[in-house]
Design brief:
564 residues; 7-stranded mixed beta sheet; 4-stranded mixed beta sheet; 15 helices
């Protein structure tokens, strides 16, 4: 009996090796759960690997696996297979590691559903403070998957500054309580996303990331980018809308109002307020951007002087004009704009190459700006592939450069080549406009311009003591953006892709927030399949009866072949 007995190594070595494998796998799994290696994960992994290697060698030696030529050959083949397997696994591990660190992703959807807008990318790229984003969603809630996916895109665009943490509030109450203590609030709203940056925080509710009417489109990027601006900017951009001269109102939700622009500015962390210049007798000191949106009455000389003083103190003005119809009604801004290198003409830009069904080519006041018709400026550089529609515009031109003029104006957009500036606008309502080569303004016709302080020669800078003492000093002054139309910014034309972005880019440039320039988030693409009842029947019977019949037919054919 004693000769047939095996010692404990032969009896239990297999179980011990299996225990080592389980220990190594458990240690590795624990490291993945803890998102890193620690003593609790390294110890079982190391002990398990040592047991596997040690007992495998010991068992091989006791069983004399290398005593004969056949066993040596078999052991050599097995060792070769093991080495090659380890080598192949190492290659896959290295490739996986490199792929994790350096990879390129492509969004193959038609509308770029999984791609962040250029404006959001610019904001993320220029973050200088770390941001912690925490989701408090129950899995299965509406748009939960989309929220997680888009936040991963945010983290992908700035892995150093953005950290994402997903908390299930029903399963991780302790983490919810810890977050509430960190935010110094007693209760947290479930199904929300919390953005933290230092002592600032912003909660984005589930209702904020979805369209409030059917179909419920996902609008998470716009809400999340706005939240990032809220927690990273210590000071809001203050914008005043001038009133009292028939200007468009930011609280008017009708077609001619500009409430949609105002709401977009609020999401961009801007504070907006009305301003009656004659009541205040000055522009408030906290005004970052002054907006005059389509005045229909003339400004008093006193009001223009107040605006002039504001600009001389490095103010910023966005002016959206309308053609003077009738021509004897002007706003009075012509002289003021001339001081900043811009020229306003008393005309209305006409476009006569619009093809309309049943009517052929027609003459209209709608101007479509696209591609090369945009000027070379930071406001419009990202709009090259988008159309901007202006309706009833006067021409705004940049004056020739003058060495004595400290400001330089640049054209933002041009009308198409076939357009002209109609100067005979007195009876335009009663007759069709016709191009007059002698009196009308011919192409190229500019529709908007931006002005700022230019690089001054040394002879001018030396005359200013502050600039003369600092060789690196650059002159600073007012910034102006002037459009020959206001309709393009209204609610009626706001859905056009390039219109709102043009206004928002102009305001961000005026407020010296160039990192927020770019194309904003697009509306989510909603597609609904309309299926005819007969098509539904085909789909039903094809899936219920057709698919199960296919293997039966194939099996019958095989059986018939073998039978023969």
């Amino acid at each position: 009996m004693s000769d047939k007995k095996k010692d404990w190594i032969d009896l239990y070595s297999g179980y011990i090796i299996l225990a080592g494998i389980i220990a190594a796998i458990s240690g590795f799994g624990l490291s993945r759960i803890l998102d890193g290696w620690s003593v609790s994960s390294v110890a079982p992994t190391g002990i398990g690997c040592a047991i596997i290697i040690g007992f495998s060698i010991l068992k091989a030696m006791r069983n004399k696996w290398f005593s004969t030529e056949a066993s040596k050959r078999k052991a050599l083949v097995g060792t070769n297979v093991a080495v090659m397997s380890i080598f192949a696994a190492s290659i896959f591990a290295i490739v996986g590691f490199l792929n994790h660190r350096h990879y390129v992703r492509f969004d193959l959807t038609l509308t770029g559903k999984y791609t962040l807008s250029q404006k959001t990318k610019n904001i993320l790229k220029n973050l200088d403070k770390p941001i912690v984003i925490t989701t408090l969603f129950n899995q299965g809630e509406m748009f939960f998957e989309q929220i997680v996916d888009i936040l991963k895109e945010y983290a992908h665009n700035n892995t150093e500054k953005i950290k994402i943490e997903n908390i299930d509030p029903l399963r991780s109450r302790s983490k919810v309580e810890e977050l509430a203590m960190r935010l110094k609030i007693s209760d947290l709203q479930l199904n929300s996303v919390v953005f933290e940056c230092g002592e600032y925080s912003k909660h984005v509710q589930q209702s904020d990331v979805m369209e409030r009417q059917y179909p419920f489109k996902f609008k998470g990027e716009e809400a999340f980018t706005g939240a990032i601006l809220n927690v990273t900017q210590e000071k809001q951009t203050t914008i005043y809308f001038v009133q009292g001269h028939g200007e468009r109102q930011f609280d008017d939700y009708d077609r001619v109002g500009i409430s949609s622009i105002a709401n977009a500015l609020k999401r961009d962390n801007c504070r907006i307020a009305p301003l009656n210049i004659m009541d205040k007798k000055k522009i408030p000191d906290d005004c970052d951007v002054l907006i005059v949106a389509g005045p229909s009455k003339a400004y008093l000389t006193e009001e223009l002087n107040i605006i002039r003083n504001y600009l001389e103190n490095r103010g910023n003005l966005l002016l959206m004009l309308e053609p003077a119809v009738p021509p004897n009604i002007t706003t009075g801004f012509g002289t003021l704009l001339g001081e900043y290198g811009m020229v306003v003409r008393d005309d209305i830009v006409i476009y006569n190459t619009v093809k309309m069904p049943l009517f052929g080519i027609q003459t209209v006041a709608e101007i479509y700006v696209k591609n090369e018709e945009y000027g070379d400026h930071r406001i419009t550089n990202d709009l090259k592939n988008y159309n901007t529609i202006l309706y009833g515009a006067c021409s705004i031109d940049a004056a020739p450069l003058n060495d004595q003029m400290p400001y330089e104006a640049k054209v933002l957009m041009y009308a198409p080549d076939s357009a002209w500036g109609e100067t005979d606008i007195a009876d335009l309502k009663y007759k069709k406009p016709e191009k007059n080569m002698e009196t009308d303004v011919l192409s190229p016709i500019s529709l908007a311009a931006a002005s700022q302080v230019k690089e001054l020669p040394k002879s001018v800078t030396q005359a200013h003591p502050a600039m003369a003492n600092d060789p690196n000093a650059k002159p600073t002054g007012a910034r102006l953006v002037v459009f020959g139309d206001v309709d393009f910014a209204t609610n009626e034309f706001g859905d056009n892709p390039g219109n709102h972005d043009l206004v928002r880019n102009s305001i961000n440039w005026l407020a010296k927030k160039e990192t927020q320039l770019g194309i904003s988030a697009k509306d989510a693409d909603f597609r609904k399949a309309v299926i005819h009842p007969k098509q539904m029947k085909v789909i039903f019977w094809g899936s219920i009866a057709g698919i199960p019949v296919i293997p039966i037919i194939i099996g019958g054919i095989v059986w018939w072949k073998r039978r023969r």
